[in-house]
Amino acid sequence: MNVYEEAKKVSIVTIILNVVLGVFKVIAGVLGHSTAMIADGMHTASDVVTTVMVIIGVKVSNKGADDKHPYGHERFEPVFGKLISLFLAFTGVMIGYEGIMALVKGEFTKPAPIALVAAVASIIVKEGMYWYTLRTAKKIKSVSMEADAWHHRTDAFSSIGTFIGILGASLGWTFLDPLTAVIVSIFIIKVGIDLFMQATNQLVDEAAPESVIQKIEELTYSIQGVKGIHDLKTRVAGNKIYADLEILVEKKASVEEGHHIATRVHDLLEKDIEELKHCMVHVEPY
């Protein structure tokens, strides 16, 4: 599986859709006199920037090891994930600010029907983009692409709120339009913070998921000659996992026999666990 090509294909599709949808929503917001729809359109436009960052992040993180980076470049991917999450949170702050200013100034207008049409179109398209991007993000285990997927979903939720606000404003409750923008901004900021913390965990040697640890133990014990596991440590680095473990073998076994058992454990783990990039196996007497 070519991780970069998978990410690139999805990203190009979402960039094209975001450009078309973003322009349509901003125009609809201007023509329809809806501050919420204009904010929604700006949110969609911001997705283009984050998607470009995803392409760069995945490309860099999948470069092989070199003299300066002997363990590879996987950690660059969560770095880009953090940048995208910050951009997402900043977008939420700006949308909230515009909504608050409209409420404070009492700048309420009655939106035109075109704003409602744009909101419905956005909900359908952006939710589809969320699932399309998330499926690939899970497949290639990319935190930056997952952050981008959530950027699409927040846009869909934003459009749902915008639809409600515009509909209410059309019925005479004009304050609902900017109020909706504020409520949506809070949700966007929350998602940005959550994704920031997720990316941070991948940069501070967080342990692998329990399911992976259990699989390592099961595979290790399946090798004949392994009497036990003395110590097992794992760490997540971007979309890859590293493991260090000490296995117990019969104390009367020769150095060659112990080495052979350790090699079989090493090869089996790296073969059967796709995300395990490297494991270090140390032999201890039982």
Automatic annotation (TrEMBL):
<keyword id="KW-0813">Transport</keyword>
<dbReference type="GO" id="GO:0016020">
    <property type="term" value="C:membrane"/>
</dbReference>
<feature type="transmembrane region" description="Helical">
    <location>
        <begin position="12"/>
        <end position="31"/>
    </location>
</feature>
<comment type="similarity">
    <text>Belongs to the cation diffusion facilitator (CDF) transporter (TC 2.A.4) family.</text>
</comment>
<feature type="transmembrane region" description="Helical">
    <location>
        <begin position="154"/>
        <end position="173"/>
    </location>
</feature>
<dbReference type="InterPro" id="IPR036837">
    <property type="entry name" value="Cation_efflux_CTD_sf"/>
</dbReference>
<dbReference type="InterPro" id="IPR050291">
    <property type="entry name" value="CDF_Transporter"/>
</dbReference>
<protein>
    <submittedName>
        <fullName>Cation diffusion facilitator family transporter</fullName>
    </submittedName>
</protein>
<dbReference type="InterPro" id="IPR002524">
    <property type="entry name" value="Cation_efflux"/>
</dbReference>
<feature type="domain" description="Cation efflux protein cytoplasmic">
    <location>
        <begin position="209"/>
        <end position="286"/>
    </location>
</feature>
<feature type="domain" description="Cation efflux protein transmembrane">
    <location>
        <begin position="12"/>
        <end position="203"/>
    </location>
</feature>
<dbReference type="Pfam" id="PF01545">
    <property type="entry name" value="Cation_efflux"/>
</dbReference>
<dbReference type="Pfam" id="PF16916">
    <property type="entry name" value="ZT_dimer"/>
</dbReference>
<dbReference type="GO" id="GO:0008324">
    <property type="term" value="F:monoatomic cation transmembrane transporter activity"/>
</dbReference>
<keyword id="KW-0472">Membrane</keyword>
<dbReference type="InterPro" id="IPR027470">
    <property type="entry name" value="Cation_efflux_CTD"/>
</dbReference>
<keyword id="KW-0812">Transmembrane</keyword>
<feature type="transmembrane region" description="Helical">
    <location>
        <begin position="112"/>
        <end position="133"/>
    </location>
</feature>
<feature type="transmembrane region" description="Helical">
    <location>
        <begin position="79"/>
        <end position="100"/>
    </location>
</feature>
<dbReference type="InterPro" id="IPR027469">
    <property type="entry name" value="Cation_efflux_TMD_sf"/>
</dbReference>
<dbReference type="InterPro" id="IPR058533">
    <property type="entry name" value="Cation_efflux_TM"/>
</dbReference>
<keyword id="KW-1133">Transmembrane helix</keyword>
